[in-house]
Design goal:
Blueprint: E1 16-20, H1 25-36, E2 40-45, E3 61-65, H2 73-85, E4 92-97, H3 103-121, E5 127-133, H4 139-159, E6 166-171, H5 183-188, H6 212-228, E7 239-240, E8 246-248
Parallel strand pairs: 1-2, 1-4, 2-3, 4-5, 5-6, 6-7
Antiparallel strand pairs: 7-8
Length: 249
């Protein structure tokens, strides 16, 4: 059920968003946040669909299980999105990358992001690609991955499409000492403070207690929602951390 008002700048009604690593804890929360904003979400993962995400015939969430490095994976994902959502549009992509992905997997993520971005470029409203990393056990490894592979992937995808049509941005930890408040995101929080509070009923019975880690993932998912939604219109090539602070522009 949506908790976004019809005319909210965060309303993603009829927007089709592809989310990779959708069965990871972060992927589940990101998918739920996008669903609460009325998006049509296609989750992609090589692991089974998470039980907390319903993917019935007419639900806003659909799921495609595949290994991204398979030869036809990207074509199959696009074809499935067209089939289940009855349109060839894609309006956004949350490119969740694992911190320990090998070169082949990273290349597959980049290929899918570039394909989605090309489809967005050909659409009336354009779209947004957000590249980020699934939380790693070693935060230093995550930060190192962010400043390296995420920037490389984002730059490559961005170079293949018009910046007037497709926004390509990153969420990563980076160096906290260099992070500074990002005023557009601070102002945007007035529109979705309700999403900062995790709802217990989304995770029962699988999760009995809302931990600090889960709350942090909710805050992180709101940063992604900001970058995917129309509230980030005109913002391209920026790096925000998981709290919405500016790391690099």
């Amino acid at each position: 059920m949506s908790i976004i008002e019809r005319y909210s700048p965060l309303n993603l009604a009829y927007k089709i968003i592809v989310v990779t690593n959708a069965s990871s804890p972060v992927g589940v929360i990101v998918s739920n946040t996008l669903l609460k904003a009325n998006a049509l979400v296609l989750g992609v993962d090589n692991k089974p669909k998470d039980d907390t995400l319903s993917a019935s015939t007419y639900s806003h969430f659909q799921f495609w299980k595949c290994k991204l490095t398979d030869d036809n994976a990207v074509d199959e994902i696009i074809e499935y999105a067209t089939k289940v959502f009855k349109t060839d549009r894609i309006n956004g992509m949350v490119n969740l990358i694992n911190a320990d992905d090998d070169a082949d997997t990273l290349a597959a993520h980049e290929k899918l992001a570039a394909r989605c971005a090309k489809i967005m470029e050909g659409g009336i409203d354009g779209g947004s690609v957000v590249t980020t990393v699934v939380q790693a056990a070693n935060i230093d490894a995550q930060a190192s991955h962010a400043v390296g592979q995420l920037l490389k992937t984002n730059k490559q995808v961005s170079s293949e499409v018009s910046k007037d049509k497709v926004r390509c941005n990153i969420v990563a930890e980076g160096d906290k000492a260099d992070a500074k408040p990002y005023e557009p995101y601070t102002e945007a929080q007035d529109h979705f403070n309700f999403l900062l509070k995790p709802r217990d009923d989304q995770y029962r019975p699988k999760v009995r207690e809302i931990t600090d880690d889960i709350r942090a993932m909710f805050a992180f998912s709101n940063v992604i929602l900001y970058l995917i939604s129309g509230m980030s219109e005109g913002k391209d090539g920026i790096v925000l951390n998981r709290q919405g602070q500016l790391v690099q522009s």
